[in-house]
Amino acid sequence: MKRLGEEKGKAMPIMTKIETVDAVNNLPEIIVTAAGKNPFSVMIARGDLAVEARFLRLAELQEEILWICEAAHIPVIWATQVLESMVKSGIPSRSEITDAAMAGRAECVMLNKGDFLIDGIVALDDILNRMQAHQYKKTPRLRALRIARKPQDS
Predict the structure, then answer these.
(1) For the residues of 39-77, what is the DSSP string, one character each?
(2) Are 44 and 82 contacting, i.e. CB atoms less than 8 angstroms apart?
(3) Helix (H), strand (E) at residue 154
(4) Can you give the three-state secondary structure of 11-46, one letter per residue?
C-alpha cells in the first residue's frame, strides 16, 4: 500500500471493515494506528457482526462504533442488507425503512446490488432527506460506553 501510495504521490486511503467483537474492542487502537498515516474510514459489517455478537447486541455495538468514530472524526459506512428486500424485490419491509432511517447517522450507506437498485437509491434518498429534520448524527445523550463484550458477558 505504501508503494502504491507513493506512486500516486499520496497516502492510500484505508477502509476497515468492523465485523467481529474483537474489532469493536480494538477500534480505538485501530483508528489511532491507521488514521495517523492514511485517509481512513470504518465500515460497520452488520451481518457478520450480528452473527458473532448475537443479534440482540447489534444495535448497541453499532451505536458504540458510531460514537467512537464520531469522536475521532472518522467517517462511517453503514453496510449490510440496507433496504435488501426493496433492492431485490421492489418492496421494502417495515423494519428496513426504520433501518434506512437510522443509517443517516453514518456518513455513507451501502446498498447491495439487485434488480431494483435504482428504486432503492430513490427510496433511501427520500428517507434520509426526511430524517434530516429529525436528527443530526448522534445527538442523543452519550452514556458511558461499554466496549463490546462477549455475548456471555451481557
Answers:
(1) -EEEEEEHHHHHHHH-HHHHHHHHHHHHHHHHHTT--EE
(2) no
(3) none
(4) CCCEEEEECCHHHHHCHHHHHHHHHCCCCEEEEEEH
Task: Summarize pLDDT for 88-110 with one digit per residue, the tens.
Answer: 999 999 999 999 998 988 999 99
Helix (H) or strand (E) holding 141: none
Residue 129: how many other CB atoms lie within 10 Å: 10
CA 6 to chain centre: 29
Give pLDDT tens digits for 110-148: 999 999 999 999 999 999 988 887 766 555 555 566 665
Maximum pairwise Cα distance, the chain: 48
Residue closest to 79 by CA, chosen among 117, 60, 107, 56: 107
Indicate the pTM of the whole model.
0.79
- Cβ atoms of 80 and 18 within 8 Å: the answer is no
Distance CA 27, CA 45 (A): 13
Among left, alpha and beta (phi > 0; psi -120 to 50; other), residue 80 is left
